[in-house]
Amino acid sequence: MTAVAAGVFRRTPLERSDQRVAWDRTDQAFFAAGACHILAWVCRDAHPDRPIGLAGLRFADDPQVWHVYATWAGWTFDHSGWHPEPHLLAANRDFESRPLEAVALPDDLAEFCAAHHSRMPHQYWGDPLPRARAYLARHTPPWA
Length: 144
Prior knowledge:
The structure is a single chain. By secondary structure, the chain is of the alpha+beta class. Helix content is 40%, strand content 18%. It is built from 7 helices and 5 strands. The chain has a 5-stranded antiparallel beta sheet. Strand 1 (53-59) and strand 2 form a beta hairpin. The longest helix has 12 residues, at 85-96. It starts with 12 loop residues before the first helix and ends in a 7-residue tail after the last helix.
């Protein structure tokens, strides 16, 4: 699977305002836009034996992170699976047609959510954690 820009799956105004409608999107769309941070934290927590990091994309000179992914040894994991980090960055940069920055994120999910206006797992229409674990399990990590 090729790295796909998160913006391809940007939520519509209805999906932003109605949690049920957002929840009913495909797994890839759900984890590309609206729950990418949940997927990244689940990936990190699922592999405690690996030094999985957390990173976010933002537009250059903008403090707001709009896409989150997991990192490991030059690889990334997000809605489009495992890819070398340059591929993920290029897909998003090309789609957005704007300079992007990748930034390291704090280890604490609540701290991230508070700083970046993101939902904690209990704030979704349904529990996104089992859904994220199942989605992660469909993607073979590069070390396997």
